[in-house]
Every structure is written in C-alpha cells, then in structure tokens.
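Exercise 3.2. Students should predict the tertiary structure of the chain below and write it as structure tokens, then compare their answer with the key that follows.

Predict this chain's 3D structure.
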Amino acid sequence: MKLADLRKLSIRKNLKIRFQLPNGLECVITEHGMAQIPALRRVPDFSLEQELGSISDFVLESATADKKSAPKSWAVSREELASMVSTSGSGPAAEHEEE
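Answer key:
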C-alpha cells in the first residue's frame, strides 16, 4: 500500500485518513487527497512514503459529516485499509459503489 493509494481512496470515499508517524507527528490525508502534517514547521528530514510502511493503525473520518455534529470516525488496521484500497480501485463500477 502506497501513499498514492491512500490519496485515491480518500478522494473516492470522501474520507480523511489520519495516522501517527513514528516521530510523534500526525499525518492527515484530506478528502482532497492532500497529505498534511499540521505540526511540521520545516522541510521534513524523512520520507512520508517510507514512514507509511511502518504504520499499522489508521483512523478514518467521514468528510461528509454534518457541520453541527462531530465527524464520524473509526479505527482500522493496516490490513483493513489495504483491503479497502484494493477493492475501491477495481474499475469504473467501483466509483459508483456506496458504503
């Protein structure tokens, strides 16, 4: 599973994907496919792609949640997320699938 796969999934499913990096920073992949590290204040001395390989827990957050209520979020393992990635990009029919 690569960073590009997570970016595509976040766009297709309208999700924010959050995970903790080994150095303690949090990475958020927005529903627009942008990978952001909010606490980062300088050019990173690490590769996000390489760090992703060591991540085992992710939190998914619905980006379509009502603004008045708290966003719906749930934790998934690396295996569950990899399964979502592999099933979401399997062709044109996958783009119209509902959760």
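Discussion points: The two ends are 21 Å apart (CA to CA). Residues 3-13 form the longest helix (11 residues).
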